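Notes from hallway chat w/ T.B., transcribed later so I don't forget. T.B. wanted the structure written out for a chain they're using in a teaching module, and asked if we could keep both sequence and structure tokens in one place. Agreed to drop them here.
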Amino acid sequence: MLELCLSHDHERHIRDHGCRAFPHECCGFLLGRDEAGRRRIDRVLSATNDRGEEEQHNRFTITPEAFMKADRAAREADLEILGFYHSHPDAPARPSEYDREHAWPVYSYVIVSVRDKVDQELTSWILADDRSTFHAQPVSIDQIQESV
């Protein structure tokens, strides 16, 4: 299992986005490279949760246009979209059944739990090839300052 490597700035960006979006889910992209058994994230891009207002508290939607824009940004920086992040307001940082049904294998899925506007646990997951379950992905936080 590839270890997910985030900089401290990237971790803070994801956590802060989750707190700002509370009580709704936030979402965004993880751009980087797979290298030597590690999935190194070099850039984090916030996205707008385009889900209807009545469902944003427990669902998120990223538009195809936002995906294409993130893909273009990744290619211009010689990176790839390696995954996505989102928050779980007042819920654990564990994938839901809805997350499993809408995820794709190979991507990393970072989830941050936010309770009462305070960020809590941050985890990452990869969907099994047969789409039956998520596997926990190890996360390391580097102290290197990166661009967000």
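Follow-up for T.B.: The mean pLDDT is 94. Might be a good example for the class.
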